[in-house]
Each structure stands twice: as structure tokens, then as C-alpha cells.
Specification:
Chain lengths: ~250, ~270
Amino acid sequence: MPANERPKRVEMRAVVKYFGSLKALDRITLDVYDGEKVVIIGPSGSGKSTLLRSINRLEEIDRGRIIVNSVDIYDPMTDINKIREEVGMVFQSFNVFPHKTVIENLTLAQRVVRKRSRKEATERAMTLLHKVGITDKSSAYPNQLSGGQQQRVAIARSLAMDPKIMLFDEPTSALDPEMIGEVLDVMRNLALEGMTMLVVTHEMGFAREVADRIIFMDNGAIVEEGTSEHFFTHPSHERTKLFLSQIL
Amino acid sequence: MAQVEKRKKKIEDQGQPVIDIGDGAAIPTRKDIGLFDAWRIAFFGAIAMVLYLAIFRPDPYLKIIKFVPDGIWVTFKVTVGAILLALVIGLFTGLGRLAGNRVINGVASLYVEVIRGVPLLVQLFYIYYALGRIVQIPAMSSAIIAMAICYGAYMGEIFRAGIQSIPKGQMEAARSLGMNKSQAMVHVILPQSFTVILPPIGNEFVALLKDSSLVSILAVADLLRRGREFASETFTYFETYTVIALAYLIITLFFSKLVSLMEERISARQ
């Protein structure tokens, strides 16, 4: 099915966000279709993370509209918790729960939010731990794990909620170089399974390989977007060319 | 924005901060050798002194020692009752101080500000007599309520600091999983802040235990009041207050030690 006939997962319309007098998001308009993998790149401070975080309302926007899974997330009638159940989020700093074991990290929200039984939640958790390759550490505490393992637990924790969209906010930026690969592998597999993904990253190899579409941001605005082929070989904007020449 | 990120990162890197609000007895730790020795000398010295006085000077010391334990029991009841109530008040005050709602935040902040600005003894009189005009409740209960209202303000600050010490990402992660604010508080934030707030709460307990001697003014037969009763009948003021002071010292040092052991266990687990 061509991408634009599939349902839209995220629609952003002229979204504007200020941090004080700084324009963090400058009239962002963006559609993400079901199953699409969108990678957002750009220099630091360009608004990539803010864009991502606005999709599940971790950042409040000042103008514009954001529609997630066909629901306007700023509609006063919208229960934002319901939206967030369907939108997984992976953070740069992992944010695993340090007072819970690995398995408890995965079952907590399933039980509290999804109201699943202990047995059902545990089964789902074990399946996902197997998928991210951490079965032998299920009763360990996060501080006994490496950064890469913690991040994989965090990904599994999000997946346990059966989200329709996954947001990745620089998931490998806080990792030692030797651990980046294991996390990217998990993300790559997720992409192959058809998950809708929005990824902010500096991993250009991953972007080139996985992205259906690459978005380049600068000063809060989308400067250029296109397929990874177009983006890496024939970027049309000077700003994009400059950025690519600096990082590649 | 880069600067915001940097600051955020810095906060997260620093790990668990230690809250140091000390108005209790100095807490002995193995790291502070001087204090550790002082604790041993004071604690065992006080016990030895009580034993010595009881054995070699039974009149009046043994009589005093037999007369005051009722008061110790009352002192404990007031202290434990007040600390439990203060914990509840403190939790809601701390949450209130962090609330986005301006009214709730304002009320909680006002409470803390007013309580901290009035001496405990004045508060005790005020609450005791103010309560007395509205409802007739036993002296003991009003003493507990008054102590709890006072200590609740300090507890509130401990809870607030404890909650704030948890990195912001924890709340964000919990909310991102679809938890509402209270679910995130109960399951993610409060259990983590527990280890941060436990030591200062222990300190408050010891401080409250000492301050509970103030309730002796409110017709509550605590340790100090029992001593006063005995002394005024027998005119043995010096001897009685010696025993009272030693009793408070032993109890306080004992609980200080418990708090320090608890702190050690918590930091060993991290």
C-alpha cells in the first residue's frame, strides 16, 4: 500500500513553541503515516527533541494542532493518558525505574494502566525481554546493568504497552560506543516488524539504512525533508549540505 | 536550549543528594570518629550513672527512677502519635508545595511559612486553647495534634525536597507509559524518594522526642511532668532533674544511633 493511503498516526499543523523568547518550534507541519520510519536530524538546539516530546505532550505547544491516532491531543475532552498509552517513548537518559527489577519495570504500567493480571503482564514482559536479549537479567536491578542493557529494558518497557507509535529521543547518545550497536539492532528489528517510529539521532548510518524519510531541522524549523537517498546524495539546501559536510 | 539540556544532565549526573536538616542530636557515624566516641561515652556513661545512683544512693534516686517511667510511656505515645500524624500532614504539604495549582500551592506554602515563624511553645498553647474553645478533647490528643501540626510543616519540606531530588526523567517516563500523576507519584516517585527522606525523618523523630517535653505544660503527664510532680512533693529538685536529663539523654542517643544504623543500611544498598 502506498504510504499516503495508510492511516495517519501523527499530524502536526503549524506547531509553534517558545522557550521564553526562543522559538523552539517554528510552524512545524508534519504527517507521519502508519508503519513509517521518520528520522529527525539537525544540530543541537534545533528543536528535534522538543518536536518529539510535543507529540505526547511532554512539552506544551503555544500554537498549532497535533493529532495523534486521529485524536487532537489539545482538545480539552482528550484524556492525555489514553494517548500516551499508545505512544511509546525512549529517552536519552534511559529513565528506567531504579527501585524496580527489570521485570517489574516492564510489568508496572501494564498492571497499573492496562489493568493486566500479574501473569499476563509477566508473560508479555518475558516475551519482550527475550526480544531485546535480556532474559537472564529479569530479576536484576537497573544499576546492575550496562547502559546498553538499560536502554534495551527501557525500549521493552515501552513496547509492553503495545504502542502504535514509538518515539526515540537520542536513544544512543548517552551510551559508550561499544553499546550503541546492540540498541540500534533492537530498533532495526522493530522497524522491520512495521512499527511506526520517529527517531531523533546522530547515528547517520542508522538513519540512512532504516529511515523512510529524513527530516532536517534547524532553528526550530523543518529545513528539508525527503527519502534518505535524496537526503544524503542530493540535499537541496545549503544549510543541509553544510551540516552533512560537518558530520560525515 | 543546549544550556537547559546541559543543566538537566548535570542534575541527573549528581545522583542522589543528601538532605541535611538537622535539629536533632548529632547523628553518630563511623566516619566521624570523634562523634562516634562521644556517642559511646555519653550513652554508656549515662546508663552507668543511672545504675550507680540507683544502687549507691537509693534514697531518693531509686524512688525517682521508680516514679518516672509512667512519664516515659506518655512521652513515647505523644512522640509516636505526633510523628505519624506529622508524616501524613507532611506528605500532603510537600505535594501541595509542588502543586501547579496556585490555590493549593499557596495554602501549603502559607502553612509552612506561618508554622516556621511561630515558636513551638507558643503554638502549643495556641492550638491547645484554640482547640479547647471549639471541641473538648483530652489534653493528650490536643498535645499530639499540636505537635503534629508544627512538625508537619518541617516534614512537608522534607517530602518536597525528597520528591524534587528524583530526576525529572522518572516522572516523564512514568507519564509516557500512560500513568496519571498520582499513579506516577505512588509507584515511581515516592518509593524512590523514600530512601532520601528516611534519614531526615529519623532526625525529626529524635527532635520531636525532645520537644515533646514542652507538652508537660499542657497537663500531659509526660516524663518531664512526672519529674516535676515528684520534685515538688519531695523538694528533691536537683536529684529529680538529674534523672530526667539522664533519661532523655539515654532515649535520644539510643534513637540517634538507630537512625545512623538505618542510614548506613540505606547507603550500603545503593
